[in-house]
């Protein structure tokens, strides 16, 4: 009888540990990125260094119980890794982008990129800050399937930008 009770308690504890261990927050490594509140400084840096400005729109954090969270975080990490050499990366949320209301050409390029990106997160919006023009909206699915190969044409365009 005692053995059955011990076994039942042990199984209950193990199952509770497994459930809490699975629902953990997935860490996003935001190294080599700039926060949205420093957008103007990032824009100036990108112009001075002849780089693109990439706005990476995503949630603040992801839980492992959210379907597709691991793949989404992998896309974010792959984007940062693949673009940090030729682009200043600004991390933003959807509400940050929706708050961009200026009448200047840069704000118009940000809004255009946001509209073209659709509803899926993360959104990868690449802008040429020197010309205030949208260069490309990179689909997250393309980054997920092709990895850093998704940024080849942008890397070539960045080389042309430096000439």
Can you give me a brief rundown of this structure?
This protein has one domain: Glutaredoxin, CATH 3.40.30.
Question: If you had to describe this structure to a student in words, what would you say it looks like?
Answer:
- This is TPM domain-containing protein.
- Residues 1-23 form the signal peptide.
- Keywords: Signal.
- The chain is of the alpha/beta class.
- It has a single domain (24-162), classed as Glutaredoxin (3-Layer(aba) Sandwich), CATH 3.40.30.10.
- It is 50% helix and 19% strand.
- The protein is built from 7 helices and 7 strands.
- The protein has helices at residues 2-22, 39-48, 69-83, 94-98, 105-117, 140-146, 152-162, and strands spanning 25-26, 33-35, 52-57, 62-63, 87-92, 123-128, 133-138.
- The model has no long low-confidence stretch (mean pLDDT 86).
From the N-terminal CA to the C-terminal CA, the straight-line distance is: 81 Å
CATH class designation: Alpha Beta
CATH fold descriptor: Glutaredoxin
What order do the SSEs take from the amino end to the carboxyl end, as H and E? HEEHEEHEHHEEHH
CATH superfamily: Glutaredoxin
Please report which band the strand proportion falls in: under 5%, 5-15%, 15-25%, 25-35%, 35-45% or over 45%: 15-25%
**Numbering strands along the chain, what is their spatial order in the largest sheet?**
2-5-3-6-7
Tally of contiguous helical segments = 7
Estimate nothing, just give the exact number of structural domains.
1
- Indicate the overall shape: elongated
The appropriate CATH architecture is: 3-Layer(aba) Sandwich
- Give the low-confidence spans: none
- The amount of helix comes to 40-55%
Average pLDDT over all residues: 86
User: Radius of gyration over alpha carbons?
Assistant: 21 Å
Structural class, judged by helices and strands?
Answer: alpha/beta
Q: Care to count the β-strands?
A: 7
Largest sheet: 5 strands, mixed
Protein name: TPM domain-containing protein
Keywords: Signal
